[in-house]
Amino acid sequence: MANYTKLDDTLSGSEGKGFITRSGQNREMFEISKIDVHVTLSVTEKKLLGHRMKQHKVVGATGEGSGTFYFMNSDALKEFINYKKNGIYPACTLQFTNEDPQSTVGRQTVTLFHVILKTIPVAYLEDDSEDPITFDSDFTFDDCDCLEAFQLPENMR
After folding, report:
1. Is the whole-model pTM more than 0.85?
2. Which of 15, 72, 76, 150 sees the fewest Cβ atoms within 10 Å?
């Protein structure tokens, strides 16, 4: 068996789905154009006695992401208005699955908990555009879980 990366096993960025849970209601995230989620590790460094080089240790992490969304849903705006009036902001849960039927690596499904969008669209108009309206937002999340993980490509197993 050949041990090299096959193009068929790479994942197409448009093969997958996202879901959102707000106030106990679960639905597909039809407004996603692009999403990028990552964890940034908090690393401390210290030079200890007897060592000439600094050592490093992971001491925490921050969940961050960014996305481009189609401007076609008012849920986040309604939640902000409720927060403005009552002081309560309900964070949501997001779940994403990457799965390309051509690939032999299977799929990966991750869930993000306590997600807060940093930018909430209110209104947008542009007189010389025929493109769909989108907006960009960074977001944070407080926890995540990997429900399904990719496996090695078939020719590497």
Report:
1. yes
2. 72
CA-angle at 30, arms to 90 and 119, nearest 5°: 45
What is d(CA 136, CA 7) in angstroms, rounded to the nearest whole number? 30
Specify the pairing of strand 25-28 against strand 134-141: unpaired
The alpha carbon dihedral of 46, 51, 55, 59 has a sign of: negative
- The pLDDT tens digits of the residues spanning 65-101 come to 999 999 999 999 999 999 999 999 998 999 999 999 9
Compute the distance between CA of residue 17 and CA of residue 126 in angstroms, rounded to an integer.
29
- Enumerate the β-bridge partners of residue 99: 107
Amino acid at 3: N
What does the DSSP 8-state code read for residue 52? Answer: S
Q: Is 16 left (phi over 0), alpha (psi -120 to 50) or beta?
A: left
Among residues 127, 142, 119, 144, the alpha carbon closest in space to that of 68 is found at 119
pLDDT, one tens digit per residue, over 24-55 is: 899 999 999 999 999 999 999 999 999 999 99
Decide: helix, strand or coil at residue 64.
strand
